[in-house]
Design a protein that fits this description.
There is one protein chain. The protein has two domains: about 90 residues, no CATH class; about 55 residues, no CATH class. Helices cover about 65% and strands about 5% of the residues. The chain contains seven helices and two strands; from the N terminus they run αααααββαα. It has a two-stranded antiparallel sheet. The chain is globular, with a radius of gyration of 17 Å. The termini are far apart.
Length: about 160
């Protein structure tokens, strides 16, 4: 017999994903000079992720969300984790994992010297040679994460 998640389980997991998103944004946009606040927000963000990871995934989309979180901190090669996430997303028939927060990625990318701009109607991300942190962040994007960042920029960049 096929497993069908309850509406309650789906809604509860969606709330955990939203709490994780809010915690990640709060951490990313916190003041750099307030170490106590950064520590507190780091604890909140970790707790949000841990709660989400420990909750059973009610469907394949939830599994993709959990795999995406794990892909940021593990001993497995990144390409293996990216493939697991891509497989789960394919099975779930979704084109975006629900936990990637493009605003947070873009914030950190720009913080280490990356730039986003529009030229000839197209969105571009650039990492000058002297900003290896930005180059690294740009190189770590999966195809679906890049698409989410570009979608965000399409909505926010004038052009």
């Amino acid at each position: 017999m096929a497993y069908t998640p309850s509406k309650f389980d789906l809604e509860r997991f969606a709330k955990l994903v939203e709490h994780n998103r809010i915690a990640q944004i709060a951490l990313a946009t916190s003041a750099d000079d307030d170490e106590d606040e950064i520590d507190r927000l780091s604890d909140v963000a970790f707790a949000a992720q841990e709660t989400l990871l420990l909750k059973p995934a009610p469907d394949a989309a939830a599994l993709a969300a959990k795999l995406e979180i794990l892909s940021g901190d593990t001993q497995w090669p990144q390409e293996v984790l990216n493939q697991l996430t891509a497989d789960a997303m394919r099975l779930a028939e979704i084109d975006r994992a629900p936990t990637f927060v493009p605003e947070v990625w873009l914030h950190y990318f720009q913080r280490v010297g990356g730039r986003a701009y529009r030229r000839d109607g197209k969105v571009w991300l650039s990492a000058p040679a002297e900003t290896c942190g930005a180059s690294n962040r740009l190189g770590e994007l999966t195809p679906w994460q890049r698409a989410a960042v570009v979608d965000l920029l399409e909505q926010t960049l004038e052009g």
